[in-house]
Write a structure and sequence with these properties.
This protein is α+β, with helices and mostly antiparallel strands. The protein is elongated. Strands 1-3-2 form a three-stranded antiparallel sheet. The protein is about 55% helix and about 15% strand. The protein contains six helices and three strands, in the order ααβααββαα.
């Protein structure tokens, strides 16, 4: 994931709300997300596209519906980048580095 796409994706308050919603309730459809956030489907589509392009949201087709979930790996990678940018790389172990080779996040959790 490019840093610029991460920053763009999380810069909008509606996209941050969307990420939080999908963290709480993964695998939601666009119709449910639109209803829960109170935004139009075209607006939601634009936000989902930005989040997908940044690698933060992953679509999964289930029949005619598409369900969305947060890619926690990509989110953790972006957060680690922000901490490095802020000179807070000592805080990264507290957040948890993502181990690309093992496919594990903080404390061995699979992401």
């Amino acid at each position: 994931m490019a840093e610029e796409s991460f920053y763009l994706a999380v810069s909008h308050p509606s996209r941050r709300k969307l990420l939080r919603l999908l963290q709480e309730e993964p695998n939601m459809t666009a119709s449910i997300i639109s209803e829960r956030l109170g935004i139009s489907k075209p607006t939601l589509s634009s936000h989902l596209r930005t989040l997908r392009e940044a690698g933060l949201v992953v679509p999964k087709r289930a029949g005619v519906r598409i369900h969305y979930r947060v890619d926690k790996r990509a989110l953790l990678e972006g957060v680690s980048g922000v901490l490095l940018l802020a000179g807070l790389d000592a805080a990264i172990p507290a957040v948890g580095r993502y181990d690309m080779e093992k496919g594990e996040g903080p404390r061995g959790a699979r992401l």
